[in-house]
Amino acid sequence: MSITRREFLTRTAGGVAGAMVASKWGIAEETRPKLRLSACDWSLRAGGPGGLEIAKRVGLDGLEVSAGEPAETLQIADPEYRRQYKENVEKTGIVVSSTAMGLLNNAPLATDPRGPAWLEQTIKATKDLDAKVMLLAFFGEGDLRHRRELKTDAVDVVVERLKDAAPKAEKAGVILGLENTLSAKDNMAILDRIQSDAVRVYYDTGNSTYNRYDVPAEIRELNDRICQFHFKDGQHYLGQGRVKMEPIAEAIHAIDYKGWIVLETAIPSEDRDADFKKNAQYVRNLLGVV
Questions:
Q1: What is the CATH classification number for the domain harbouring 189?
Q2: Tally of structural domains, the chain
Q3: Confidence tier at 85 by pLDDT (50, 70, 90)
Q4: Which end of the chain is more exposed for a tag (fewer CB within 10 A), N or C?
Q5: Is the pLDDT of residue 289 over 60?
Q6: Which structural domain range is residue 151 located in?
């Protein structure tokens, strides 16, 4: 297939940029870290199975899929709903990178009696969608801190519920990723109590920066207890706001992370496709992702 001069220059520039980044990190091109790019369906404004087509259009490799709103049976637990996702995976070549229980922000795992059933439903759905990571959100009403103080009673309940869920996740080959406002130290204390490799930290570089944590140091401290990353920076494009991306990239390479980088980025220009393409290309250049 022939290509135009502009297409040739664009592709060549992308390849040169990737090679330059790989050289910067001291990584041979053929042995670059295996990183792939995804986005949250809520950030992409692309809920439902059709979101995979949008993810493909903006140049991503995957999509993080929401579990649904609070209900006795979550939307993601519906086999027919998942069948539509699997059909679109075959059609587009874009995979479900992970699932996300954002509903826990308003229906906290620590207090909602349906929480254990929701965990079990989403573990089964995540396995069925051939994803490995399941995000558990702890913000809003579900925040495990109050005025920067740990809510110890809530943490105790969460630990016990995750202890019960961990064997099911282990059997399914799914990792429960905790995304919250806590420090690396507090997260590691929780993981030490649960004692399961199926429960790890879903690290959000934007949340941690805005909570005034030393993000590169925390990434190195948590190391392989990080199961996945969210990249965001408020209403800014990546690299143009408060989050210092280059030290974060150095830390990610230092721990030899291999997995998904999930964009939870804003749409500053209100042109969704253009803004996600811009952020995705920035991350590819930053991390040396082909």
A1: 3.20.20.150
A2: 1
A3: very high
A4: N
A5: yes
A6: 32-287
